[in-house]
Amino acid sequence: MTKQKIVITGGPSTGKTTVIDYLDSIGEVCLHEISRAVTLKAQEEGITQLFLENPTLFSQLLLDGRIKQFHEATDIKHSRIFLDRGIPDVIAYMNYSNTNNPDNFLEACATHRYDYVFLLPPWKEIHVTDNERYEDFEQAQKIHECLEKTYTELGYACIEVPFGTIEERSTFILEQLD
């Protein structure tokens, strides 16, 4: 069976998680974002914003988790698996924060390839901040640019998902796969 690993990515305030949740609810196989879990675990250990305080450690934890997800997706017996973010997101966020990428991060991107990358643009009307999402809208736009640049430099042709209802956005994604 040919298996497609499909990344849904975007910066804060794009509707990415809502799209993933909707795809999951209609029976698609989805692996969910891990950065909030990493952030919450660090907060439980007394580190308010691990990404800001130790971006390399935060990024390494994300890299490890996303590689694990990649292998989980390989083992799932389904023709396509959606992932809420991919391994290159780690590099994009490191680039955003002007943190050097260790060689093993680029090696991980080279050896773990996805079949499709859908990029959701920042959406001002849905932008909110919370305990794990601290970026303002201008920062969300810069993160979007870093994501697009990183995936493109790694040889991906990002498919930008237009604004619309959750059903319209999900249908757009699914139609690209047919």
TrEMBL record:
Gene3D superfamilies: P-loop containing nucleotide triphosphate hydrolases. Residues 5-169 form the NadR/Ttd14 AAA domain. SUPFAM superfamilies: P-loop containing nucleoside triphosphate hydrolases. Pfam families: AAA_28. InterPro entries: NadR/Ttd14_AAA_dom (IPR038727), P-loop_NTPase (IPR027417). It comes from the Bacteria. This is Putative ATPase.
